[in-house]
Structures are given as C-alpha cells and as structure tokens.
UniProtKB/TrEMBL annotation:
Cellular compartments annotated: Membrane
Protein name listed in UniProt: Sodium-dependent transporter
Keywords: Membrane, Transmembrane, Transmembrane helix, Transport
One Pfam family from the record: SNF
Organism: Colwellia hornerae
Length: 451
C-alpha cells in the first residue's frame, strides 16, 4: 500500500469505520418498522439468515476488489481487467458507484440536517429561546440550507484529514458513542408504560409468515442495502486494509456489528412507538400498518418526547444526537469514494479535492432543497432503488465472472494461509457468481413493482 494513500492503522479502526458506514439513518428507523410490519421475530430471523448468506458474500466481493487493487474504485476494478471491454466495463461500474455515493450524500445531508436541527431544539428550549427552538424544527428554506451546510462542513472536515486521522479517528470516537446512547435509551424506554406491548410486537415470532414473498423480499433488501453495497464505499475501504489482515473474519465482524445495531435499534424504536400510543399518539396509519419513515421520526417520536415533560427534552436530545451520529458515520464514507477517485486519478491534493467535492454536493443539495417536494424522493429513489442494486450486482459479476479464480484465492490467502481449505472458499465463489446477482436482481425487480 502506498504510504501517501494512507490506510487503517488497526483492525478495530477498519471495523468501526465500515460498521459506521453500514449503520445509518435507514438502519435506525427502517429496520425496526419493517420488522414490526413483517412478522416480528420471523422477519428478524429471515433478516439475520440473509445478512450472512447474501449481504456478507456481496460485501466480501467489494472488500476483495479494493484490497487487491489498492486504489480507488475505478482503478481497482481496472486492475482486475484483462481486455479493453473489461476496462470500459470496470470504469462504468466503478464510476457509477462513485456517482451513486455522491447522489446519496446530496439528499442524505438534508435528512441529517433535519436530525441535527431536532437535536438542537430541546437545547434551545431548555435555555429559554423558544422562538429559535420553533424555527429550527420548522420546514423553511433557510433552516434546510443552514443545517445541510453545517452537516456537510462536518463531513468535509473529517475527510480532509485522510484515512487514519480522519475516517478512522472519528469512527472510533463516534461509533462507541452511538452504541452507548442506543443502549441507554433502550434501558430508559423499556421502563415506560406501553413498552411491554412494543417488545411483544417486535420479538414475538409469527413463523407462519417466514416464507411470505413480501417478507422475504423486504428482508433481502434490508440485509443487502444496510451494508452500504453498490456505492464504491466498501471497495475504497477495502483498499485501505493491510494485506496482513484476514478479510474473511473482518467482513464477518462488520456484518455482525451491523445486524446487531439494527436489532438494538428495533429494541428502541418499536417499544417507543407503543409508549407513544399509550400516551395518546397515533402510531398506525389508515391501512393498519405501523407509521414509518419521516412521519415516525419527525411526528410520532417528538410527540412522545413532548408528553414526557421535562425529562422528554433530555431524551429527545439524546435520540436526535444518536440519529445525527449515525448519519455522520455514513456520510464520511460516502464522501470518501468521490474524493479518493479525484485525488488518485487527477493528482489533486486531498484537502482541495475534499472541499471542492463537498461544495459540489452541497450545491446539488441546494437544488433539491429548492425543489424539495419533487426532487428529494426522486433523487433518493434513483440512487438507492436503481443505482445501488445495479452497481452491487455488477461488482458480484466482476468477481464471479471476470476476475480469475486463482487471483481471488491468492488475495484471500494474504492474511489467511488456510483460506483455500475453509468452508467460506468452498461456498463463496459460487454464491458470488450465481446466487448474489440473481438475488439482487430479484430485489431490484421487486423495487420496480413489476411483480
């Protein structure tokens, strides 16, 4: 690995950074509500199985591409190519992932800004600035632009400092804070009236639903997309891993942390929703399903916190601080993809490249904010439902069909001499070649509502 590129200085540094990338806003509010709406513990079981049987193999494909190439996503894929058409294909896949990451960050920064504004609100209320507190949680142009800019400045600040002093250093600080806040909030919420009913809805299994098509597809999508696949992030993170590390073990550890935090998020969100119901807040939509998405985070839970009295302000601050941290650990990984490409392919200093790209993505965020009613959902759907699955599927195709099997094995054996004789090696190549592209294709088709 080139010294100028930098790299993760420790195993725990990579694990915290990769887990931070995987654990984002979707994990915190998406997984719990999907669980409650799809058979409770039955969904959790299916999710866990698919996370290790599908998401983990695809995750390993991207890590291997990165560590083998020791470069940005485009250059790493091109190093695996042996012909002109393969190199063109490599550029399409690698650059497509970079564009996808930039698009995700452009709308993600807006949502993260909202999280930060809701974290600031109870502080302003506590010090008596009620008008300012009301302004920061109101939908207005300047509020949206201001907090989006603040979030992007934080993201740019971290990435400007590189891998070891930026991504790794802050991931090792933020991830323990995120986990600690999550556990403290769980302990508090489960002591409240109504929490027991929420725990029952979340944990009581309905195994008759395990093989329902919608449940399987939902669990498949959640398991896959929760690991930041299809955005070039894990390729670039893989390129910063030492050749001495055992990738099979590292990948499994990140996957385990990701699904564990998603599970913990469920232990917080679902009981909190039923506590809100006990306080008179509506948590079910007109069709009988649990309220999810932005309505849950910005309507149901704030109503719950408000009903708690003085303690509610502290709980609200802790919750939205948790959400802001989750957003930041993901955003730094999404910015690193485009930055690494510009730094290495165009020989631009990291500080300058980070600032310019950060400004460019913020300008795109501004366009979205100015047309928020139509563009926010459009960009989100284009990046996550179209871009991510296509790019991730093509990465699996690259590893399974283009990269020579012996070269894959040689890369795996660096840091793990016995990889050739492991169960992983006997199963994983075929999974990557056949199962992963097929399963991802099924998720993609389902997202288009074609069946």
């Amino acid at each position: 690995m080139s010294v100028s590129r930098g790299g993760f200085s420790s195993r725990i540094g990579f694990i915290m950074a990769a887990a931070g990338s995987a654990v984002g806003l979707g994990n915190i509010w998406g997984f719990p509500t999907q669980t409650a709406s799809n058979g409770g513990a039955a969904f959790v079981l299916v999710y866990l199985v698919l996370a290790f049987c599908l998401a983990y193999p695809a995750f390993m494909a991207e890590l291997l591409i990165g560590r083998y190439g020791q470069a940005n996503a485009v250059s790493s894929l091109e190093k695996m190519s042996r012909s002109l058409w393969q190199k063109k294909f490599a550029f399409f896949v690698g650059f497509g992932g970079i564009v996808c990451a930039a698009l995700i960050l452009s709308f993600y920064g807006i949502l993260a800004g909202w999280m930060m504004s809701y974290a600031v609100e109870p502080v302003l209320t506590f010090v008596g600035l009620s008008d300012a507190a009301q302004w920061v949680i109101s939908q207005s142009l300047w509020r949206n632009l201001g907090f989006t800019a603040l979030f992007m400045i934080l993201t740019v600040f971290i990435i400007r400092h590189g891998v070891e002093n930026g991504i790794e250093k802050w991931s090792k600080r933020l991830m323990p804070m995120l986990i600690g806040l999550l556990i403290l909030l769980i302990i508090y919420v489960v002591t409240l009236d109504g929490a027991a009913e929420g725990l029952n809805a979340y944990l009581n299994p309905d195994f008759s639903r395990v093989f329902e098509p919608d449940l399987l597809i939902s669990a498949l999508g959640q398991a896959f997309f929760s690991l930041s696949l299809g955005t070039s992030v894990m390729i670039i993170y893989g390129s910063y891993i030492s050749k001495k590390e055992n990738l099979i073990t590292l990948g499994a550890q990140v996957t385990l942390i990701d699904v564990s935090i998603a599970f913990l998020a469920g232990l917080l969100i679902i009981p909190a929703m039923y506590v809100a119901q006990a306080q008179g807040v509506a948590i079910f939509a007109e069709d009988g399903s649990l309220i999810n998405g932005s309505s849950l985070v910005f309507t149901v839970l704030p109503s719950l916190f408000e009903s708690m009295g003085n303690i509610g302000s502290f709980v609200a601050f802790a919750f939205f601080l948790l959400m802001s941290i989750a957003a930041l650990t993901s955003s730094i990984s999404m910015l690193e993809g485009p930055v690494s490409y510009v730094v290495e392919r165009h020989d631009i200093p990291r500080e300058k490249a980070t600032t310019l790209i950060g400004i460019g993505i913020f300008l795109l965020s501004m366009v979205i904010v100015l047309n928020i009613e139509t563009m926010l959902d459009f960009v989100a759907i284009a990046a996550t439902q179209y871009g991510q699955p296509i790019i991730a599927m093509l990465c699996c195709v690259f590893v399974g069909w283009i990269w020579h099997r012996n070269d894959v094995l040689m890369e795996l054996k660096q840091g793990n001499d016995s990889a050739e004789h492991s169960i992983f090696w006997k199963i994983w190549p075929w999974y990557t070649k056949f199962v992963c592209p097929t399963a991802i294709g099924v998720v993609f088709i389902h997202s288009l509502n074609l069946f």
